[in-house]
């Protein structure tokens, strides 16, 4: 911290305790402004951190800053929220002392952001392990949920917390976060039904309408138009242009998922939120003094969402049941009371929903086991409020701040006294403003303002705000911190109304308007409405309106009594912890960066009690520091301690201050620290140190220059030695290189010759090139001359790839020459052989027998050729058909399978099956393009000609033929038709053939010897093929 003292005229002092005129409020505010203008938003008052909201991002919260502040002493580094958090965290972890960070300030001063930075730092410096990360995620994601339901846009702050929050972060013995717990105080539920001009209702209403999907809104009976909802229109044009409600809603949904809310809980929670919006739209008319509901659709939506009876809720909103002396009386409400009942119900539902949400978050944040853990508390609570018109809420808030100020002064004085006693320094009593008298004025049992308010709420008759004010004026007329209109002087009476009273708080005088005090303190919800809510089918509603509440006849505690009880419990919690303080200040009311309103800041400095705190801190000594740190910084100012002190640090500091000429009353020597009374003493020491630095710098420069010169000489000497060494080395290398080259050349020649038949290398490359040339010459003289004898000459190892390519290319060349020399008849034969191969290879076992014989066009014996030729010339030729293939076949009858000799004639258009005896008789004719051919995959020669349905009527059925040259015949037919698909080769044991009138026959195929085709005992045609 001392490193910036030389710039104090420009940037001020980091610790206000070092201000010379520490009692001057102007000097304190001026110091804050200097630092604010330099983007230094943090200032200390001893251990208290003062934070001024910059209203801009100043980039001082990144990972590098977290690393800079981690495990650093509080005063080692510039003021920062990370420094305070690190000190509290290390005290909890290393000293096992529970901590509490108290954050205070008015709306818009940055309290919520400060609490987020505390959580951010704790999350960053703790270990990143699975279970720990889950807990940290829950702690961080609980904030968006609480802000959505508990924060709202006000004229002072776009994200103003409208409730007090105390969060405990629980740590295990390793200092790792394992859970958390949240307490909430005094939610401003009146905001649900009414907002000031320019302000908004709670964020969640706007986020739900902006971020929910259309289907979700339909389920909740909502529309996106804000003006449709009465409870959202009080603030006028307050839609919050600076707020991204859709993005915030996504954050809420993400937080809900992280905190493990069930689908039912989410649905019911948002149903309750929607029901509050609809409740504002329930209107009333009045007939003969009785209220009537005018907007039934809003009531219907409420009942649907929270699961209550529409008739019961309607009656509860327009009637009131009173039990007195055992009699039950139900009376109708007028319009004014009905509106009051509706608004009271809306406030009660939202307030209890918020309490349920906090309890639900606590269940999610609880650690898995029940062990007691050390905790660090974060209290983010509203600061002191002084408005133009102050009401019941301001009294509660200012009462809370009075209690906190009382605790603050008590703990600050206590810690100061403990440090003095620990260090052996005499303690002097400090005069300060003890605000216990104000706390007693408000909360003293049977005598305080709270007791008077509760008495008025409970007494029979018709108590009013005016009667209560009269009673207060009477009871406190002699109290010097209570001022009534009657008691005030003439000047004060001009500024006070008769319905107002004034309290002299520690932070200033506050005038409260009594109107509405009784109503807000009573916080009355009619019994009929409670009963209606208790009957809800919504599980959350059931839990926040329990059945036992309906049965109980006991009057609930008043609002301020409940608040006092919870506040006293909070004080008990804080008393058991070691406190740290963050005081947040808002620099201007326009929420702009670089604008510092001195009047506004001075007002906040007053009601935050900062001058009182500074005065208490400065009552003794302005500066204290451990001996080791003080000696380490300033030891250069004394010859005896410079450059190194060999004794104890305390003795060294004593020697140092004696040399500096400190007066006896300017300092005290504690057990571990030096205490300096006046800032000017420290400033003089620091200024002397800054001057001394120039002298030290000159000495360091002189020493450094001599060292540089010595290094230069030694470097030059070493360079000369190196050069000599390298010259000698170079000469030796040249001689060795010459010898190496000679040996290498000889070795290369021998190795190249020995490896000439191996893979190509740089060594044998020349020999291999020679071998390639010799081989090519030999090859040119011994090329194969016959296509059937392709013996290829051997080659060297290096020519294997080239030899393979040349062999392939030369073979292709010989084949090409051979093909060009072929005659048309032989070419046709070869083409038919190629076609046969594509049709039957690896498909028909009889195919290999056909390879060695040429195909012929006529297989008929010579004795039959004459008569057959005459028949073809006379019968077939006149039709324009040409004979293409003729062969004798054996035809098997369709029924008895009797074999009959026939001649098969294939023309360019059709099949002819002829019976040739002494004459030729045509038995069958089938067009080629309509039949299909079926053969087996075995060694048989059977061909089945399958006929289509239309030919089946003219003929008896499919033809079964045994063809001697089956492969030849089928190849000729396929070549003639160019239709390979008409041939089917079946690899199966039975084939079905079709006959006339839908009858079928079966051909069985088996293997064996000898080959035969005959009718089997089963009546089927049996083909026995050789294996």
Automatic annotation (TrEMBL):
It is a peripheral membrane protein. Residues 844-1027 form the TH1 domain. Signal peptide: none annotated. The keyword Nucleotide-binding applies. Residues 567-589 are annotated as: Actin-binding. This is Myosin-IB. Gene3D superfamilies: 1.10.10.820, 1.20.5.190, 1.20.58.530, 6.20.240.20, Kinesin motor domain, Myosin VI head, motor domain, U50 subdomain. Belongs to the TRAFAC class myosin-kinesin ATPase superfamily. Myosin family. ATP binds at residues 105-112. One of its GO terms (biological process) is mesoderm development. SMART domains: IQ, MYSc. GO terms for molecular function: actin filament binding; ATP binding; microfilament motor activity; phosphatidylinositol-4,5-bisphosphate binding. It comes from the Eukaryota. CDD domains: MYSc_Myo1. It is found in: Cell membrane. InterPro entries: IQ_motif_EF-hand-BS, Kinesin_motor_dom_sf, Myosin_head_motor_dom-like, Myosin_TH1, MYSc_Myo1, P-loop_NTPase. It comes from Ignelater luminosus (Cucubano). Keywords: Actin-binding, ATP-binding, Lipid-binding, Motor protein, Myosin, Nucleotide-binding. The keyword Nucleus does not apply. PANTHER family: MYOSIN, UNCONVENTIONAL MYOSIN IC. Its main location: membrane. It holds the Pfam family IQ.
């Amino acid at each position: 911290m001392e490193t910036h003292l030389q710039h104090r005229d420009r940037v001020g002092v980091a610790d206000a305790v070092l201000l010379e005129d520490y009692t001057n409020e102007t000097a304190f505010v001026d110091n804050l402004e200097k630092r604010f203008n330099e983007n230094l938003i943090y200032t200390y008052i001893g251990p208290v951190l003062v934070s001024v909201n910059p209203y801009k991002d100043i980039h001082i919260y990144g990972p590098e800053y977290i690393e800079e502040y981690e495990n650093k002493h509080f005063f080692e580094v510039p003021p920062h929220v990370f420094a305070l958090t690190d000190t509290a965290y290390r005290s909890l972890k290393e000293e096992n002392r529970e901590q509490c960070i108290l954050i205070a300030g008015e709306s818009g001063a940055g309290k919520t952001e400060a609490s987020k930075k505390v959580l951010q730092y704790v999350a960053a410096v703790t270990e990143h392990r699975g279970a720990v990360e889950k807990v940290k995620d829950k702690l961080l994601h609980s904030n968006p949920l609480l802000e959505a339901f508990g924060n709202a846009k006000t004229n002072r702050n776009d994200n103003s917390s409208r409730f007090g929050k105390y969060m405990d972060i629980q740590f295990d013995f390793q200092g790792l976060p394992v859970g958390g717990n949240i307490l909430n105080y005094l939610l401003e539920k009146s905001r649900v039904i009414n907002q000031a001009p320019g302000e908004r209702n709670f964020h969640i209403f706007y986020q739900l309408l902006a971020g929910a999907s259309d289907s979700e809104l339909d389920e909740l009976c909502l529309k996106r138009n804000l003006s449709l909802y009465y409870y959202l229109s009080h603030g006028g044009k307050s839609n919050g242009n600076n707020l991204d409600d859709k993005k915030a809603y996504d954050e809420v949904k993400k937080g809900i998922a992280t905190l493990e809310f069930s689908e039912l809980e989410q649905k019911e929670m948002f149903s309750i939120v929607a029901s509050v919006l609809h409740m504002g739209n329930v209107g009333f008319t009045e007939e003969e003094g009785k209220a009537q509901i005018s907007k039934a659709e809003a009531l219907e939506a409420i009942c649907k969402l929270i699961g209550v009876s529409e008739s019961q809720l309607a009656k509860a909103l327009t009637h009131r049941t009173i039990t007195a002396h055992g009699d039950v009386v139900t009376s109708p409400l007028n319009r004014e009371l009905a509106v009051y009942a509706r608004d009271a119900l809306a406030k009660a539902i939202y307030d209890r929903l918020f309490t349920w949400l906090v309890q639900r978050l606590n269940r999610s944040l609880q650690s898995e086991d029940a062990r007691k853990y050390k905790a660090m508390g974060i209290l983010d609570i509203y600061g002191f409020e002084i408005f133009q018109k102050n009401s019941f809420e301001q009294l509660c808030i200012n009462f809370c701040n009075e209690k906190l100020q009382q605790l603050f002064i008590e703990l600050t004085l206590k810690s100061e006294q403990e440090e003095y006693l620990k260090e052996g320094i005499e303690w002097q009593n400090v005069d300060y403003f003890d605000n216990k008298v104000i706390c007693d004025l408000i909360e003293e049992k049977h005598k305080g303002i709270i007791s008077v308010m509760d008495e008025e709420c409970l007494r029979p008759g018709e108590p009013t705000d005016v009667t209560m004010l009269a009673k207060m004026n009477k009871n406190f007329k002699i109290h010097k911190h209570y001022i009534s209109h009657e008691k005030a002087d003439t000047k004060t009476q001009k500024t006070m109304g008769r319905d107002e009273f004034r309290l002299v708080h520690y932070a200033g005088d506050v005038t409260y308007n009594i109107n509405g005090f009784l109503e807000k303190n009573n916080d009355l919800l009619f019994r009929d409405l409670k009963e209606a809510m208790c009957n809800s089918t919504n599980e959350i509603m059931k839990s926040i309106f329990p059945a036992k509440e309906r049965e109980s006849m006991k009057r609930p505690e008043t609002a301020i009594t409940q608040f006092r009880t919870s506040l006293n419990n909070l004080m008990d919690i804080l008393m058991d912890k070691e406190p740290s303080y963050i005081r947040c200040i808002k620099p201007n009311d326009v929420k702009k960066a670089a604008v510092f309103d001195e009047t506004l800041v001075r007002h906040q400095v007053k009601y935050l009690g900062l001058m009182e705190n500074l005065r208490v801190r400065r009552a003794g000594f302005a500066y204290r520091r451990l001996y080791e740190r003080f000696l380490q910084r300033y030891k250069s100012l004394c010859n005896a301690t410079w450059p190194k002190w060999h004794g104890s640090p305390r003795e060294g500091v004593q020697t140092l201050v004696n040399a500096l000429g400190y007066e006896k009353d300017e300092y005290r020597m504690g057990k571990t620290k030096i205490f300096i009374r006046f800032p000017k003493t420290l400033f003089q020491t620091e200024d002397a140190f800054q001057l001394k630095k120039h002298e030290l710098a000159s000495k360091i420069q002189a020493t450094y220059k001599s060292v540089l010169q010595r290094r230069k000489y030694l470097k030059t000497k070493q360079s000369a030695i190196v050069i000599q060494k390298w010259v000698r080395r170079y000469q030796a290398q040249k001689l060795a290189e010459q010898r190496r080259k000679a040996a290498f050349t000889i070795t290369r020649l021998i190795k190249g010759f020995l490896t000439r038949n191996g893979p190509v290398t740089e060594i044998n490359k020349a020999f291999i090139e020679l071998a390639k040339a010799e081989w090519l010459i030999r090859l040119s003289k011994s090329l194969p001359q016959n296509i059937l004898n392709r013996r290829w000459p051997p080659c060297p190892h290096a020519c294997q790839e080239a030899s393979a390519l040349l062999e392939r290319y030369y073979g292709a060349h010989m084949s090409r020459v051979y093909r060009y020399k072929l005659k048309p008849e032989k070419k046709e034969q070869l083409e038919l052989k190629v076609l046969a191969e594509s049709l039957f290879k690896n498909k028909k076992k009889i195919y290999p027998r056909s390879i060695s014989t040429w195909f012929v066009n006529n297989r008929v014996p010579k004795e039959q050729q004459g008569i057959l030729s005459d028949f073809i010339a006379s019968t077939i030729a006149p039709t324009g058909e040409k004979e293409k293939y003729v062969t004798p076949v054996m035809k098997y009858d369709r029924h008895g399978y009797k074999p009959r000799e026939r001649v098969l004639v294939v023309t360019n258009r059709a099949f002819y099956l002829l019976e040739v005896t002494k004459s030729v008789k045509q038995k069958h004719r089938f067009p080629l393009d309509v039949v299909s051919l079926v053969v087996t995959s075995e060694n048989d020669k059977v061909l089945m000609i399958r006929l289509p349905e239309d030919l089946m009527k003219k003929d008896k059925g499919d033809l079964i033929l045994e063809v001697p040259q089956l492969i030849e015949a089928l190849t000729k037919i396929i070549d003639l038709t160019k239709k390979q698909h008409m041939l089917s080769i079946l690899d199966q044991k039975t084939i079905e053939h079709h006959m006339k009138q839908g009858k079928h026959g079966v051909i069985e195929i088996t293997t064996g010897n000898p080959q035969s085709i005959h009718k089997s005992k089963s009546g089927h045609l049996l083909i026995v093929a050789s294996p």
